[in-house]
Amino acid sequence: MRNSVIDYAAAEAHGVTVCGTASSSTPPVELTWALLLGLARGIVRESDSLRSGGPWQSTVGADLHGRRLGLLGLGKIGSRVAQVGLAFGMRVSAWSQNLSEERAAEVGVERAGSKEDLLAGSDFVSIHLALSDRTRGLIGAREFGLLKPTAYLVNTSRSAIVDQDALLDALRAGRIAGAGVDVFDIEPLPADHPMRTAPRLLATPHLGYVSQDNYRTYYGQAVENIRAYLAGSPVRQLP
Question: Which single residue of 54, 65, 87, 195 could bond 49 by disulfide (Cβ 3.0 to 4.6 Å)?
Answer without folding.
Answer: 54
